[in-house]
Amino acid sequence: MCLGCGAVPDFDTPEYATFGAIQTRDWESNEGMDPFSYGLNSVTSATQYKNGTTIIRTLVDIVSKNGNLYVLFHSEFLERY
After folding, report:
1. Which domain range does residue 67 map to?
2. How far apart are CA 65 and CA 73, in angstroms?
3. What Cα–Cα distance (Å) separates residue 21 from each residue in 18, 66, 67?
4. What pTM value is reported for the model?
5. Which residues face 31 on adjacent strands?
6. Residue 79: what pLDDT?
7. How far, in whole angstroms, is CA 46 from its chain's centroid?
């Protein structure tokens, strides 16, 4: 619940996580391509970033449980890798 806004949220948002079963409530998961942060991390090597296969598998898992996936990545990532 959003304690600062005084309203009950209309959906659940686990970060970097998913549910184990289909949900009846609206929900979304959000994550970055970096497994440790939402930004482009200079400490993370190119091999540690999520690849297309991982992102698609995560998307299919979440959508199959009635959820949405929000993936954040920087355009600099595309230029760098």
Report:
1. 27-80
2. 24
3. 9, 9, 11
4. 0.72
5. 71
6. 64
7. 18
Residue 20 domain flag = no
**Would residue 41 count as lying in a domain?**
yes
21 contacts 5 by C-beta, under 8 angstroms: no
Residue 61: in which H helix or E strand, if any?
Answer: helix 52-63
Q: Which two tokens stand for residue 41?
A: 């991390």
Q: Bridge-partner residues for 30, per DSSP?
A: 15, 70
Backbone angles phi, psi at 24, to 5 degrees: -90, -25
pLDDT of residue 81: 57
8, 1 in Cβ contact below 8 A?
yes
Find out whether 76 and 42 touch, Cβ atoms under 8 Å. Answer: no
Q: Which amino acid is at 65?
A: K
> What pLDDT sits at residue 76?
65
The segments of the chain whose pLDDT lies below 50 read: 1-2
Residue 8 lies in a domain: no
Count how many domains the chain has: 1
